[in-house]
Amino acid sequence: MSDGYQDLATTIDTLVHRTGLDRGSLFDLKRLSFHTSLPEADIRRLLDGGELEAAEVDHQEVARRIQFLMDTRLCREEGPGGAVRERPYTAPEIAAGIGMTPQWLNTLLSQRKQSSPNLKHAGRIARFFNVPVNFFTDEPAEALNRVLQSEVLPQLSALIGNPRAAVRNRYALEIQHRLGDVVLEPPVERALMLFVDGIAREESPAGRASHRRADSGNHSCADDAGRVSAGAKHS
User: Closest Cα partner for 100 from 57, 66, 74?
Assistant: First the structure.
């Protein structure tokens, strides 16, 4: 493992302590896989301090990473009635977006092409999918290091620096961190806010006091029978 990653691991440990989040909450393997193309098992091994078997980032690996982007990056388009739907990009759309022919792209993805895209083509593909160009060339540890530094650390630093007390609550912090940049549909967002508001009301001092008053007014049959019996003795 590189010295750079060890330094990053120390920083993550510090953030774990400051946020109160455990490593299981801090690291979203699916999200890290999305940003690196690494399998979740490999990411977990790297996060646990292990090393992966050395493998050259050759033209086949570059083709795999391009295919990974095609499989995971979706095109948003508006359908009938204004409904937004997501779908994978087609090969012709990608080829047009990077200024190449569909045949060239298909040859690259079929791995019959024995060389990786040149820097110009790699840059175009990276811009099309909104990833850094070293997405195609980083070794696994470098890729994970890049994403932790560019995605996880800034987000956690922003959350920690937020002065609002609600965000400092470890559970609110964990929810916000897990959602990341996910955009919720309006009905889902409203339902989530209603759910959170309900919990906030129940757990507020007023809510707890209301529960205590309600509990003090609830009596069992045995309690009622005891009071009747006591009243009869004094009558």
Answer: 66
Placement of tokens 């298909």 in the chain? 106
Helix axes 29-36, 40-47, angle to 10 degrees: 110
Domain boundaries in the chain? Answer: 3-164, 190-234
- Three-state DSSP state, 55: coil
Q: Could you tell me which of 153, 157, 192 has the C-alpha nearest to residue 175?
A: 192
Classified as helix, coil or strand, 115 is coil
CA dihedral 12, 16, 19, 21 (to 10 degrees): 130
Q: Does domain 3-164 have CATH number 3.30.230.10?
A: no
Half-sphere exposure of 71 (CA within 13 A, CB side): 11
pTM: 0.64
- The string of pLDDT tens digits covering residues 113-136 is 566 677 788 899 999 999 999 999
